[in-house]
Specification:
Helix content: 25-40%
Largest sheet: 5 strands, antiparallel
Low-confidence stretches: none
Number of domains: 2
Distance between the termini: 46 Å
Strand order of the largest sheet: 3-2-1-4-5
Length: 250
Amino acid sequence: MQWSDEGIVLAARRHGETSAVASLLTRGHGRHAGLVRGGAGRTARGMLQPGNRVEALWRGRLAEHLGSYTLELGKAQGAALLDDADRLACLASACGVVEQALPERHPYPAIFDAFCALLDALSAANTVWPAVYVRWELGLLEQIGFGLDLAQCAVTGTAEELIYVSPKSGRAVSAAAGTAYKSRLLALPAFLVGNGAAGADDIVAGLTLTGHFLERHLLAHEAAGIAPARERFLHRMARKTTRSGGITAV
């Protein structure tokens, strides 16, 4: 059997002397691995950079087999980020989260489309990509069935002064309702409820928020916790809180 689909390279590991096993996020077939013959060669290694968009043809005798990929490079968006350590760390984090959080061979077209939008943001000259990434993780949680409710306060029902999130329910809490419990609540950065731009502190707060629910709902089976690449990205963004003007968002 065979199928063709558009895909984003998540990871590739050498297999034997000349081949590689590539993991793709495809639009119609989800996270799906396949053998790339000659994938260890110089030309194929360039194509198999995480974040690159490809046209994929998969063939296998049975659907449950590993099968093999024939790939054609679409957009080398991952390779274009190799000279920007911050954006490359963001891309590695996204790939690591998808590898951990999504079940194999289950299609999530909305997550695929959102990943494409994140790649476009990372490729753009502006500096809004950190906020796009945080929103991408929020969207991933929603698509998997664990979306956060940030529209109104869980206690009072108000949509004003939402500055906290309950770590258990994932619902927003207003300043007035959460004051007595603020040490037990997660910070809700204003940019996630449409209130202004985001600086480095806001991005870190957003990553801490989404990271909590990724681990709580999607990665409970992972003994080692969240993907190391995601941890490195969070630490990289946290270092920027000591510098003004490091990152911004709209």
